[in-house]
Structure formats: C-alpha cells, structure tokens
Amino acid sequence: MVHKTKIAIFFLFFLTILQAEHVWLVKFPHKDNHLLHIQKSFPLIDLLQHDYDQSSYVFLIPNNYLSDFTHFIHRLHGSFRIITNNPEKTWKKSQRRSKRWVPSDNPLDQTYYQHFLSYDEQQDWYNLLKTSLLTKKFIRSYTIGHTYENRTLTIIKILGHSHRRHQQRKYAIYIDGGMHAREWLSIGVANYILIQFLKLRKTNVKVREILYNFDIYMLPLMNPDGYEFSRHENRLWRKNRSPTPHSDYWNGDQSCYGIDLNRNFPYEWNNTIGASDHACSHSYRGPSPASENEVISVVNFLRQQQLSNQKFYAYFNLHAYGRFWLLPWTYSLSKKVSNYDELFNRSSKVVSSVMKKTYRVGQASRLLYPCTGTSIDFAATLMPHAMTFELSPMFKGLPMCFDQNKTLDDTCTVGFLTDPKEIEIDGTEIFNAIVEYMYSIIRDRCL
Predict the structure, then answer these.
(1) Last residue of some domain: 85, 120, 155?
(2) 245-269: per-residue pLDDT in tens?
(3) Buried b or exposed e, range 389-426, using 16+ CB within 10 angstroms
C-alpha cells in the first residue's frame, strides 16, 4: 500500500512538472514565417504577444518543450529571455493586493465595471438589471444555452426607443466578450458598454439616435467555464472546459481539456491555418464545427434572429490584447470581404476621431495572422458589419515589463494580466468608437 502511494505521489509530481509553463521572449535575426514553423513543430506552444516588424514573440511554453525549443531557436540563430517560469505565482502575488468590493443596489453603479466580476457576481448583476426600477423597463434577458459545466449563457437586450409601445427595431447590434478565458478585460469592457448605453439612452444625442434605429444584444461572458478556471486554477487559460479524446486518455494533463471557441465557428472551419487539430493545443478547433455548447448557442441565436423580422446589422467582438481594429476575413490572406473598403474607411475615420490613431485598422489575417473558424468570419456571412477589437495594451516594446533590458515591473508578465482600472479607460474608448461608428451609418443613411 505504501509502495502504491509513493508511485501515485511520483506520478502527480511528474504531471505537475510536465504541465508547468514558462513565458519566454524570443527574437530572431530575420523576418520570416517563424510562427508557421513553430506551430507545425511545437503545436502546444501558445503565442501570447508578437511584433512581426521586430521579429519578436512572447510564448507560453510547456515544460516538456523547453529543450527542443531551445535547440530550434539556436538553429535559426535566434535568442530568448525567460520572462517568468511561474506565471501563476506572479498572478497570485498581484491578486493579494487587490481590493475587496461590495455590490451596489444600483445596477448602473461604477462598482460593476471597476472589478472583474466572477461568474456568480455577473449573474447576480443580470438579475439586478432585470428587477431594478432603474433598468427593468429597458432591458430583457435571454438564456440562449448552457456550458459543459452547466453555467448559463445570458444575453442582455437593450431596448431601443419607440413611438409605439413594444415595437421591435428593424435592425440590431450584437456585442460579445470573454470568448477567451484569460481575456478578462474584454468582459469588464462589455459590462462598461452595457451600463453606458443604459445611462446615456436619454441624454446623449448619438446614443438616442442609435437606440431609435437598433436594439442592442450583449453577451459579456461567452466562456464562463474557462473564465472560472482562469480565476481559480490557471490564469492564462484560453479555451473552454469541454473534455476531448486526449483528456479522456491522459486526464492528468489539464492542457488536453477544452476547445478554442474562436476556432470553432462553422465558417471555413475545416482548415488548420491558425487553428490546431491537436486536442492539447491552446488553439484546438474542436472535433467538428460548432461542436461546443457556447458556439452553437450563439450560432443558433444569430441565425434565428436573421430569420425573424429583426436583422442583425453589426457585430462587435471584444478580445485582448494589442490595440487592433480587425476586419474579416481572418481565414484568408488573399480574399477580402465584399464591402471591405467601406469597413476600412469607416473604421479608420473613427480611429482618427475617437482613438487618436492608437488602434491599427486592417484585415485580421494580415494584421495578426490567418486563422479559421472565427466568430467575425461567421458573423460577416450574416450581416454587413463585423469586426473585432483587440483591447489594451498595445504590442510595443516586447515584453511589456522590460525596457532596454531594465526591469520596469517585477510583477509583470504579459498583457493579459490587466489591472481592473483599465476597464473604464478602455471601456470609454471602445464605447465611444462603437457609438461613433453606428452613428456614422445612420448619418450616411446606409440602413
């Protein structure tokens, strides 16, 4: 019995070592398609940050890849620096300094966007929105599905203004966040946008005009299972928490659970460019298109609405990070969506007027990298305006915590570990950008 216990302890220790992940800054001397080679040779490495112009990358690397990846870098005459070999410890250290908060009875209070709410806190807030005298007349909520771990997928609908009671808008806007578990800022910004539309619905001229023409549907938290796992187990977790064939076979390796929801949408899914068919990869596309509860729930909701009297007209997808305004297509470098020029010109004007030209606008496959099965490509097949915002921080001066080899922040790793104070800063910028974009459509009589 003692012998078996020792074996079990050793096995658990071995799995811990195997699953350990390191964050490295990697630089190569020449521009080349290094990422494609790395994805093929090391499918479990996760790209966290990059600067193609400087041929620099920040990777999350499994422990069992360290030796082979080091040889790969040296073979290409590259170099690397270890940012941290324990990102989880860094995150927990910063968490100890975070302040506790008490929810307000006012659902529009700033406390609901000054913190990263847990799933339960998010659900309590939705319930408060539905029952408060301040908001219940102006919103509706819909449960569109449940996750593998049986958490609710809740959409909040902000009702447009109408001369006639209960009249439905002809068109609608769809906004979501939290598709990737570790991108907490996208959830906070989605909450901020929801609150601002409700607070300014009568006093802001542009908001009033938008709500006269559109209803707004919001899914601030699309991946609650992954998000909760990110909060409690692995801060840099990306996928949902569905089991895979590999997780059943090798259930001690947590990386073999989960599907990347933004590689699982049913458009151009059957293509491995930027979407892995390896179940233990951070960008695993899943066994089939729309195999995941989260994705099929959204797909069915959007399709059903398109068959009703109300049509979705615009989709704003929130991610983090890099400060990019991304347009379809993501699946192709050579093809462009039919109205690309209009999307680009309209977006560029908003970036100039609202964002002080700090966002880069362009086709997603070119500004970042090609990938398939994405939500904006799917949305672009249903509605004329579909785009992704990659929020702060900007990809600049990799990694974020170093400057000229001098450490600027001992607790810094990568841009996913955003402080809650960034929610209002980014939220203000993105809310104003969405308002300006949609108002420009109304002003130009493009409906």
Answers:
(1) 85
(2) 766 554 555 678 999 999 999 999 9
(3) bbbbbbbeebbbbbeeeeeeeeebbbbbbbebebbeeb
* Domain encompassing residue 219: 110-227+289-443
pLDDT in tens, 39-50: 777 878 777 777
Main-chain dihedrals φ then ψ at residue 186, nearest 5 degrees: -65, -30
CA distances from 116 to 129, 182, 300, 348 (A): 18, 11, 28, 30
Tell me: do 79 and 218 sit in the same domain: no
Per cent of the chain over pLDDT 90 is: 53
**Rounded Cα–Cα distance for residues 380 and 53 (Å):** 29
In tens, the pLDDT along 66-100 reads 888 888 888 888 888 777 655 555 555 555 445 56
Residue 335 lies in a domain: yes
CATH number of the domain enclosing 22: 3.30.70.250
Annotated catalytic residues are 390
- 43 to each of 15, 60, 68, 70, 218, how far by Cα in Å? 19, 12, 13, 15, 33
Alpha-carbon separation of residue 183 from 130, 220, 228, 322, 391 (angstroms) = 26, 12, 12, 12, 9
Contact assessment for residue 278 and residue 284, using Cβ atoms and an 8 Å cutoff: yes
